[in-house]
Amino acid sequence: MEARLSMVTLGVGDLDRAVAFYEQVLCLPRVPMPEGAGVAFFELGKTWLSLYPRARLAEDVTVADSSPSAFPGFTLAHNVATPQAVDTLLAEVAERGGEIVKPAQDVFWGGRSGYFRDTDGFLWEVAWNPGFPHA
């Protein structure tokens, strides 16, 4: 298998609400789709983010739809170029309706990090890591 991640699909409770958050709050570039497609894509370089109704995603995977409030056991991350950018982005997310779960702080591995929760409960880390090349 080639070492790459092509797409992350998030099962969301309300597609319109989730699209508004990712488009208007995080300002991600949305890929045009036909009206009524029932899915939204955001291009993030060579990886795409897909938003799809949670119940339909569970049905597609053939698994039971568990509680959306449960910790899913994973986080998503967005790395930024400076320590100050962590604070700035978390402040912007909070102003636009995102929930700050862990405020920005210097962390043991030498960077700066904080977490927010999107409108469907997915956890995003905003991080500056001096040893990570992709920011």
Explain what this protein looks like in three dimensions.
This protein has 135 residues and is of the alpha/beta class. It has 2 domains: 7-61, 2,3-Dihydroxybiphenyl 1,2-Dioxygenase, domain 1, CATH 3.10.180; 76-128, 2,3-Dihydroxybiphenyl 1,2-Dioxygenase, domain 1 (Roll), CATH 3.10.180. 24% of the residues lie in helices and 33% in strands. It contains 3 helices and 8 strands, in the order E-H-E-E-E-H-E-H-E-E-E. The strands form 2 sheets. It has a 4-stranded mixed beta sheet. Strands 5-8-7-6 form a 4-stranded mixed beta sheet, with helices on one face. A hairpin with a 2-residue loop joins strand 3 (40-44) and strand 4. The radius of gyration is 16 Å and the shape is globular. The mean pLDDT is 88.
In brief:
Residues 4-129 form the VOC domain. The protein is α/β, with parallel strands linked by helices and 135 residues long. The chain is built from three helices and eight strands, in the order E-H-E-E-E-H-E-H-E-E-E.
- Give the topology string: H per helix, E per strand: EHEEEHEHEEE
- Assign the CATH topology of the largest domain: 2,3-Dihydroxybiphenyl 1,2-Dioxygenase, domain 1
The biggest beta sheet is recorded as:
4 strands, mixed
Share of residues in strands: 25-35%
Average residue pLDDT: 88
In the CATH hierarchy, what is the architecture of the largest domain at level 2? Roll
Indicate how many domains the architecture comprises: 2
CATH homologous superfamily title of the largest domain: 2,3-Dihydroxybiphenyl 1,2-Dioxygenase, domain 1
Radius of gyration: 16 Å
Low-confidence stretches: none
Number of strands: 8
Q: Walk across the major sheet and give the strand order.
A: 1-4-3-2
Q: State the shape.
A: globular
Protein name: VOC domain-containing protein
InterPro entries: Glyas_Bleomycin-R_OHBP_Dase, Glyas_Fos-R_dOase_dom, VOC_core
Organism: Gulbenkiania mobilis
